[in-house]
Amino acid sequence: MRAYIYVGGAIDAAGITDHPKGDDLLIAADSGFDNAKALGEKPSILVGDLDSIKEKKVPDGVEIYRVPVEKDLTDTQLAVELALSKGARDIVIIGGLSGRLDHTLSNLGILEHLADLGCHGVITDGFNRARFLRNGSTLIPRGAYTYLSLLAADKVVKGVEIDGVKYPLKNAKLARAHQFAVSNELTGNCAFICVKKGSIYIIESK
């Protein structure tokens, strides 16, 4: 099952190309309900402490999971855990990449958590789109984003390959403390990315 989780933060509605289909699960985390509304989507579940949502009246039929303001997990983390408990194994988070840096980094960590569980995850706000890759390969199709960056998530990442881009890499080593695979550009219809040992964040940016 695929779940779309709408969270707070600025979004570029025109830049968001990830949209739910009829059988997808839609969850809003607090002020993410406002972002979902701006995108014309109607979440069936609203979760969080509801301290930042602007919508004054939640439509009938929306299931509300209200939690205390003082809690261990963020609203986004709670929404992800709820989606997982309902059987989602493919999660798209809309928003959550702008505003507070601590929340942004926490949200990126969710991608690693999903990978640990064998699930697929992506975060996008229309300005950027982020994925997490560990010991594997993937294809990134050409889209609305100009730049493609690989950021080491581990102290050292080995056997990094990227092809179909302006600055290809072959069997490269990336270090978390000295990032250099930033602001690449696609030259074809897609980019091929491979990591033999370690983890990276794949960031597409406008």
Protein model, in words:
With 206 residues, this protein is of the alpha/beta class. It folds into two domains: 2-126, Thiamin pyrophosphokinase, catalytic domain (Rossmann fold, 3-Layer(aba) Sandwich), CATH 3.40.50.10240; 132-205, Thiamin pyrophosphokinase, thiamin-binding domain (Jelly Rolls). The chain has three helices and 13 strands. The chain has helices at 32-38, 75-85, 101-116; strands spanning 2-6, 25-29, 45-48, 63-66, 90-94, 120-124, 128-134, 137-141, 147-152, 156-163, 169-175, 190-197, 199-205. 33% of the residues are buried.
Short structural summary:
With 206 residues, the protein is α/β, with parallel strands linked by helices.
What are the salient characteristics of this protein?
206 residues; alpha/beta; Rossmann fold; 9-stranded mixed beta sheet; 3 helices; 17% helix
Task: Give the SSE layout.
Blueprint: E1 2-6, E2 25-29, H1 32-38, E3 45-48, E4 63-66, H2 75-85, E5 90-94, H3 101-116, E6 120-124, E7 128-134, E8 137-141, E9 147-152, E10 156-163, E11 169-175, E12 190-197, E13 199-205
Q: Into which percentage range does the β-strand content fall? A: 35-45%
Mean pLDDT: 92
Fourth-tier CATH superfamily name of the largest domain? Thiamin pyrophosphokinase, catalytic domain
Whole-number count of domains: 2
> What is the overall number of helices?
3
Can you give the helix content as a percent range?
10-25%
What form results from the Cα inertia axes?
Answer: elongated
What's the count of strands?
13
Oligomer designation? single chain
* CATH fold topology of the largest domain: Rossmann fold
What's the helix-strand series? EEHEEHEHEEEEEEEE
